[in-house]
Design a protein that fits this description.
Shape of chain A: elongated
Largest sheet of chain A: none
Pfam families (chains A, B): Cytochrom_C_2 (PF01322)
Oligomer: homodimer
Low-confidence stretches of chain A: 1-21
CATH architecture of chain A: Up-down Bundle
Structural class of chain A: mainly alpha
Number of domains of chain A: 1
Keywords (chains A, B): Electron transport, Heme, Iron, Metal-binding, Signal, Transport
Strand content of chain A: under 5%
Distance between the termini of chain A: 45 Å
Helix content of chain A: over 70%
Largest interface: A-B, 50 and 50 residues
Protein name (chains A, B): Cytochrome c class II
CATH class of chain A: Mainly Alpha
CATH topology of chain A: Four Helix Bundle (Hemerythrin (Met), subunit A)
Mean pLDDT of chain A: 88
Chain lengths: 144, 144
Protein backbone atom coordinates (compact mmCIF):
# COMPACT_ATOMS: atom_id res chain seq x y z
CA UNK A 1 0.00 0.00 0.00
CA UNK A 2 3.01 2.30 0.49
CA UNK A 3 3.77 2.67 -3.19
CA UNK A 4 0.32 3.65 -4.47
CA UNK A 5 0.02 5.90 -1.45
CA UNK A 6 3.15 7.80 -2.45
CA UNK A 7 2.11 7.93 -6.08
CA UNK A 8 -1.25 9.27 -5.04
CA UNK A 9 0.33 12.00 -2.98
CA UNK A 10 2.34 13.00 -6.01
CA UNK A 11 -0.58 12.84 -8.41
CA UNK A 12 -3.77 13.78 -6.65
CA UNK A 13 -2.57 16.89 -4.84
CA UNK A 14 -1.41 18.88 -7.89
CA UNK A 15 -4.36 17.54 -9.87
CA UNK A 16 -6.75 18.93 -7.29
CA UNK A 17 -4.75 22.13 -6.83
CA UNK A 18 -4.61 22.78 -10.54
CA UNK A 19 -8.36 22.53 -10.79
CA UNK A 20 -9.61 24.37 -7.75
CA UNK A 21 -9.44 28.11 -7.59
CA UNK A 22 -11.06 29.05 -4.30
CA UNK A 23 -11.61 27.93 -0.76
CA UNK A 24 -15.12 26.62 -1.48
CA UNK A 25 -14.30 23.21 -2.95
CA UNK A 26 -17.95 22.15 -3.07
CA UNK A 27 -18.90 25.25 -5.05
CA UNK A 28 -16.04 24.62 -7.49
CA UNK A 29 -17.26 21.07 -7.94
CA UNK A 30 -20.84 22.19 -8.54
CA UNK A 31 -19.69 24.78 -11.06
CA UNK A 32 -17.65 22.15 -12.91
CA UNK A 33 -20.25 19.40 -13.02
CA UNK A 34 -22.97 21.77 -14.23
CA UNK A 35 -20.60 23.06 -16.86
CA UNK A 36 -19.95 19.52 -18.09
CA UNK A 37 -23.70 18.84 -18.11
CA UNK A 38 -24.31 22.04 -20.10
CA UNK A 39 -21.65 21.03 -22.65
CA UNK A 40 -23.35 17.71 -23.41
CA UNK A 41 -26.90 18.99 -23.07
CA UNK A 42 -25.99 21.85 -25.40
CA UNK A 43 -25.58 19.40 -28.30
CA UNK A 44 -29.00 17.87 -27.62
CA UNK A 45 -30.51 21.36 -27.37
CA UNK A 46 -28.93 22.36 -30.67
CA UNK A 47 -30.52 19.33 -32.34
CA UNK A 48 -33.91 20.12 -30.76
CA UNK A 49 -33.64 23.69 -31.99
CA UNK A 50 -32.61 22.56 -35.47
CA UNK A 51 -29.30 24.41 -35.15
CA UNK A 52 -27.46 21.15 -35.67
CA UNK A 53 -28.58 18.25 -37.87
CA UNK A 54 -30.16 15.35 -35.99
CA UNK A 55 -27.75 12.46 -35.58
CA UNK A 56 -29.12 9.34 -33.87
CA UNK A 57 -25.71 8.00 -32.76
CA UNK A 58 -24.56 11.32 -31.31
CA UNK A 59 -27.93 11.94 -29.64
CA UNK A 60 -27.96 8.48 -28.06
CA UNK A 61 -24.39 8.83 -26.79
CA UNK A 62 -24.98 12.30 -25.35
CA UNK A 63 -28.29 11.29 -23.75
CA UNK A 64 -26.56 8.32 -22.09
CA UNK A 65 -23.81 10.61 -20.81
CA UNK A 66 -26.39 13.09 -19.49
CA UNK A 67 -28.21 10.30 -17.65
CA UNK A 68 -24.97 9.39 -15.83
CA UNK A 69 -24.01 13.01 -15.17
CA UNK A 70 -27.45 13.92 -13.79
CA UNK A 71 -26.70 11.85 -10.68
CA UNK A 72 -23.48 13.65 -9.82
CA UNK A 73 -24.13 17.28 -8.79
CA UNK A 74 -25.97 16.62 -5.53
CA UNK A 75 -23.08 15.47 -3.38
CA UNK A 76 -21.65 18.95 -3.93
CA UNK A 77 -24.56 20.64 -2.15
CA UNK A 78 -23.18 20.30 1.33
CA UNK A 79 -24.61 22.42 4.13
CA UNK A 80 -22.72 25.67 4.62
CA UNK A 81 -21.28 25.94 1.11
CA UNK A 82 -23.52 28.66 -0.35
CA UNK A 83 -21.10 31.52 0.18
CA UNK A 84 -19.31 32.80 -2.87
CA UNK A 85 -21.35 30.61 -5.19
CA UNK A 86 -24.53 30.83 -7.25
CA UNK A 87 -26.37 28.53 -4.84
CA UNK A 88 -29.06 30.26 -2.77
CA UNK A 89 -29.30 29.47 0.96
CA UNK A 90 -32.94 28.51 0.21
CA UNK A 91 -31.58 25.12 -0.92
CA UNK A 92 -30.80 24.15 2.64
CA UNK A 93 -33.96 25.72 4.02
CA UNK A 94 -36.11 23.67 1.61
CA UNK A 95 -33.99 20.59 1.22
CA UNK A 96 -36.92 18.23 0.53
CA UNK A 97 -38.17 20.43 -2.29
CA UNK A 98 -34.65 20.85 -3.68
CA UNK A 99 -34.11 17.09 -3.58
CA UNK A 100 -37.44 16.50 -5.32
CA UNK A 101 -36.42 18.89 -8.10
CA UNK A 102 -33.03 17.20 -8.35
CA UNK A 103 -34.78 13.82 -8.63
CA UNK A 104 -37.03 15.16 -11.35
CA UNK A 105 -34.00 16.23 -13.37
CA UNK A 106 -32.49 12.75 -12.98
CA UNK A 107 -35.77 11.13 -14.04
CA UNK A 108 -36.22 13.35 -17.09
CA UNK A 109 -32.62 12.69 -18.12
CA UNK A 110 -33.15 8.95 -17.65
CA UNK A 111 -36.32 9.08 -19.77
CA UNK A 112 -34.35 10.92 -22.45
CA UNK A 113 -31.73 8.17 -22.51
CA UNK A 114 -34.44 5.47 -22.77
CA UNK A 115 -36.20 7.30 -25.59
CA UNK A 116 -32.87 7.74 -27.38
CA UNK A 117 -32.26 4.00 -27.26
CA UNK A 118 -35.77 3.41 -28.67
CA UNK A 119 -35.04 5.88 -31.46
CA UNK A 120 -38.34 7.78 -31.89
CA UNK A 121 -36.90 11.08 -33.06
CA UNK A 122 -39.89 13.29 -32.25
CA UNK A 123 -40.25 11.83 -28.75
CA UNK A 124 -36.53 12.36 -28.13
CA UNK A 125 -36.58 15.98 -29.25
CA UNK A 126 -39.71 16.70 -27.18
CA UNK A 127 -38.07 15.15 -24.13
CA UNK A 128 -35.13 17.55 -24.48
CA UNK A 129 -37.62 20.29 -23.57
CA UNK A 130 -38.72 18.35 -20.48
CA UNK A 131 -35.13 18.05 -19.31
CA UNK A 132 -34.70 21.78 -19.88
CA UNK A 133 -37.80 22.49 -17.81
CA UNK A 134 -36.39 20.37 -15.00
CA UNK A 135 -33.17 22.45 -15.09
CA UNK A 136 -35.21 25.63 -15.01
CA UNK A 137 -37.48 24.53 -12.14
CA UNK A 138 -34.44 24.29 -9.88
CA UNK A 139 -32.64 27.37 -11.21
CA UNK A 140 -35.73 29.56 -10.71
CA UNK A 141 -35.87 28.85 -6.98
CA UNK A 142 -32.35 27.98 -6.00
CA UNK A 143 -29.84 29.78 -8.17
CA UNK A 144 -28.75 33.39 -7.98
CA UNK B 1 -40.79 20.90 -32.19
CA UNK B 2 -41.41 24.61 -31.77
CA UNK B 3 -42.16 24.46 -28.07
CA UNK B 4 -39.11 22.50 -26.92
CA UNK B 5 -37.08 24.69 -29.23
CA UNK B 6 -38.23 27.83 -27.43
CA UNK B 7 -37.79 26.26 -24.03
CA UNK B 8 -34.29 25.25 -25.02
CA UNK B 9 -33.41 28.75 -26.10
CA UNK B 10 -34.57 30.00 -22.71
CA UNK B 11 -32.78 27.32 -20.74
CA UNK B 12 -29.62 26.32 -22.50
CA UNK B 13 -28.25 29.77 -23.30
CA UNK B 14 -28.10 31.16 -19.74
CA UNK B 15 -27.02 27.74 -18.47
CA UNK B 16 -24.06 27.82 -20.82
CA UNK B 17 -23.37 31.50 -20.21
CA UNK B 18 -23.44 31.03 -16.45
CA UNK B 19 -20.85 28.32 -16.67
CA UNK B 20 -18.37 29.56 -19.22
CA UNK B 21 -15.99 32.34 -18.41
CA UNK B 22 -13.88 32.77 -21.51
CA UNK B 23 -13.87 32.56 -25.26
CA UNK B 24 -12.21 29.12 -25.29
CA UNK B 25 -15.24 26.89 -24.68
CA UNK B 26 -13.25 23.70 -25.24
CA UNK B 27 -10.68 24.72 -22.62
CA UNK B 28 -13.47 25.55 -20.15
CA UNK B 29 -14.96 22.13 -20.75
CA UNK B 30 -11.62 20.37 -20.25
CA UNK B 31 -11.00 22.30 -17.06
CA UNK B 32 -14.44 21.34 -15.76
CA UNK B 33 -14.36 17.65 -16.63
CA UNK B 34 -10.89 17.20 -15.12
CA UNK B 35 -12.06 19.00 -12.01
CA UNK B 36 -15.02 16.62 -11.69
CA UNK B 37 -12.69 13.66 -12.24
CA UNK B 38 -10.33 14.98 -9.55
CA UNK B 39 -13.21 15.37 -7.10
CA UNK B 40 -14.22 11.72 -7.40
CA UNK B 41 -10.70 10.34 -7.75
CA UNK B 42 -9.72 12.36 -4.68
CA UNK B 43 -11.95 10.17 -2.48
CA UNK B 44 -10.36 7.01 -3.88
CA UNK B 45 -6.90 8.51 -3.37
CA UNK B 46 -7.72 9.42 0.21
CA UNK B 47 -8.73 5.79 0.86
CA UNK B 48 -5.54 4.51 -0.79
CA UNK B 49 -3.48 6.88 1.35
CA UNK B 50 -5.35 5.87 4.49
CA UNK B 51 -6.54 9.45 5.01
CA UNK B 52 -10.12 8.24 4.84
CA UNK B 53 -11.45 4.89 6.10
CA UNK B 54 -12.00 2.30 3.39
CA UNK B 55 -15.67 1.97 2.49
CA UNK B 56 -16.55 -0.68 -0.11
CA UNK B 57 -19.86 0.93 -1.16
CA UNK B 58 -18.37 4.39 -1.59
CA UNK B 59 -15.29 3.03 -3.36
CA UNK B 60 -17.40 0.97 -5.79
CA UNK B 61 -19.69 3.91 -6.56
CA UNK B 62 -16.80 6.34 -7.10
CA UNK B 63 -14.86 3.84 -9.24
CA UNK B 64 -17.95 3.34 -11.42
CA UNK B 65 -18.33 7.12 -11.77
CA UNK B 66 -14.65 7.46 -12.66
CA UNK B 67 -14.98 4.77 -15.35
CA UNK B 68 -17.78 6.77 -17.00
CA UNK B 69 -16.02 10.12 -16.60
CA UNK B 70 -12.74 8.82 -18.03
CA UNK B 71 -14.34 8.67 -21.48
CA UNK B 72 -15.45 12.30 -21.52
CA UNK B 73 -12.47 14.68 -21.62
CA UNK B 74 -11.21 13.84 -25.10
CA UNK B 75 -13.89 15.51 -27.19
CA UNK B 76 -12.70 18.75 -25.61
CA UNK B 77 -9.25 18.48 -27.18
CA UNK B 78 -10.14 20.06 -30.48
CA UNK B 79 -7.40 21.32 -32.76
CA UNK B 80 -6.61 24.99 -32.20
CA UNK B 81 -7.83 25.22 -28.61
CA UNK B 82 -4.51 25.26 -26.74
CA UNK B 83 -4.36 29.03 -26.25
CA UNK B 84 -5.16 30.33 -22.79
CA UNK B 85 -5.33 26.82 -21.35
CA UNK B 86 -3.01 24.35 -19.64
CA UNK B 87 -2.94 22.15 -22.74
CA UNK B 88 0.41 22.09 -24.55
CA UNK B 89 0.43 22.34 -28.37
CA UNK B 90 2.43 19.07 -28.25
CA UNK B 91 -0.94 17.29 -27.90
CA UNK B 92 -1.81 18.04 -31.51
CA UNK B 93 1.73 17.41 -32.75
CA UNK B 94 1.71 13.93 -31.17
CA UNK B 95 -1.96 13.07 -31.39
CA UNK B 96 -1.40 9.30 -31.63
CA UNK B 97 0.69 9.28 -28.48
CA UNK B 98 -1.78 11.54 -26.68
CA UNK B 99 -4.68 9.28 -27.70
CA UNK B 100 -2.76 6.21 -26.51
CA UNK B 101 -2.22 7.84 -23.12
CA UNK B 102 -5.89 8.84 -22.97
CA UNK B 103 -6.86 5.24 -23.75
CA UNK B 104 -4.56 3.98 -21.04
CA UNK B 105 -6.31 6.22 -18.51
CA UNK B 106 -9.70 4.87 -19.63
CA UNK B 107 -8.45 1.29 -19.36
CA UNK B 108 -6.94 1.75 -15.90
CA UNK B 109 -10.17 3.41 -14.71
CA UNK B 110 -12.20 0.56 -16.18
CA UNK B 111 -9.98 -1.99 -14.44
CA UNK B 112 -10.47 -0.08 -11.19
CA UNK B 113 -14.26 -0.30 -11.57
CA UNK B 114 -14.06 -4.05 -12.29
CA UNK B 115 -11.83 -4.68 -9.30
CA UNK B 116 -14.18 -2.62 -7.12
CA UNK B 117 -17.10 -4.81 -8.15
CA UNK B 118 -15.05 -7.92 -7.31
CA UNK B 119 -14.23 -6.42 -3.91
CA UNK B 120 -10.56 -7.39 -3.35
CA UNK B 121 -9.55 -4.41 -1.22
CA UNK B 122 -5.78 -4.66 -1.74
CA UNK B 123 -6.15 -5.01 -5.51
CA UNK B 124 -8.48 -2.00 -5.58
CA UNK B 125 -6.14 0.22 -3.58
CA UNK B 126 -3.14 -0.83 -5.71
CA UNK B 127 -5.09 -0.02 -8.86
CA UNK B 128 -5.72 3.53 -7.61
CA UNK B 129 -1.95 4.02 -8.02
CA UNK B 130 -2.12 2.73 -11.60
CA UNK B 131 -4.87 5.21 -12.44
CA UNK B 132 -2.76 7.96 -10.89
CA UNK B 133 0.22 6.92 -13.01
CA UNK B 134 -1.96 7.11 -16.12
CA UNK B 135 -2.95 10.68 -15.17
CA UNK B 136 0.68 11.58 -14.62
CA UNK B 137 1.91 10.05 -17.90
CA UNK B 138 -0.28 12.47 -19.81
CA UNK B 139 0.30 15.49 -17.56
CA UNK B 140 4.10 15.11 -17.79
CA UNK B 141 4.09 15.48 -21.56
CA UNK B 142 1.01 17.48 -22.38
CA UNK B 143 0.12 19.85 -19.56
CA UNK B 144 1.74 23.16 -18.69
Amino acid sequence: MKKPALIMLAIAAPLLNACSGGPNEAAEYRHSIFHVIAWHFGTLGAMAKGEQPFDQAVFERKAGILENLSKLPWEGFQEGTAEGSDALPAIWENRDDFDAKANRFEEEASTLASLAREGDQQAMLDQVGKVGQACKACHDDYRK
